[in-house]
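Annex B. Sample input.
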Amino acid sequence: MDVLAITTTFTSLAVVIVALRLWTRFRLAKTPGWDDLLIGGALIVDLAFFAFVLGERHYGLGKAFSALHPRQMQKQLLFLWLSIPFYNLTLILTKFSALFLFLRIFRSHAFLIPTYTIMAFLMVSGLWIVLSAFFFCVPIHDFWSLSPKAHKDHCLPGAPVWVSNAAIQIFTDLVILGMPLPLLWNLQITRRLKVGILLVFGFGIFVIATSSARLYELSTMIGHGDFNNPHANVQAVMWSSLEANVSIICACLPPLHPLLSRLFSFCFLPQPVNSSSASTIPLHSTSRTISKILPHTTQFTAPRKPSIYEHGDSGVGTDSGVFHKGHFYAGTGSYSANISRVVTNEETNDDAVENGRGFGLCRS
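Annex B, continued. Sample output.
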């Protein structure tokens, strides 16, 4: 497999998905947040990582070291040294973006504590992973030195550091993937909508798959001592790029729900609220017709930007663009007015609203 074709394809796909996410959040849902800023930062770091991979390839990635000029070998190792911390930082920023998204969606106090805990762990472990990559050798120029003695005396042991860092990345991926699933499963919504939302969040399993594949290639290379094997080096770079870009893509899928709901309405759009005791009048009927039926009518409107503090018993908020708990759903489609009770002259509009009477809007 051509490492350039694969890395270019998935990096380009990540750019498109992030652009769609930002457009959805800023223009469609109008609910931008810190999670969007973090995913934008992750993409910028990922593009820098991609540039360093191109540098590695330019200086002979995929060729045996014995076939390269010493100057080429040093340049390739220099770009390898630059790429490792940027690869790790891409993953860490993507995880923080997912956690900040969770804070916007899930408002249950029982969920906030583990979220902040994993954030603290990720901050400490992330600092170690990035700094250990930058200062793998002290002085740092010994990383691209061709002297075996310099590597032995001034560099960290490669196998323990790389494998432990990869294991930390996989562990945090597993925790972040599993955190929202119980809350999502217990939502009091239609099975079709629940399956759609679980599928969106469940795409994170692909991140774990690519991380595991990269760890396998890395372990194989270390176990066989194939650091100078061109095929092993290409595989390590390819899986690193796949992991970084797949992480960004999967982290963008839940915020893309308002856009996805318009494209795949069967799985994602909420269903209308049925009322056996209510009559239905199309919303496009004139206000004169409605006023004849309801002497005192109350107009219900949905806010364009719900507050993150509006949530129900499930602990799921409405600011995420993923799930709206109320009867008025943002998006395309027609709406109807359900009349549950005719307000008499003796009752005021306020009483009707306070007691849940009058008429309400639901999607049809």
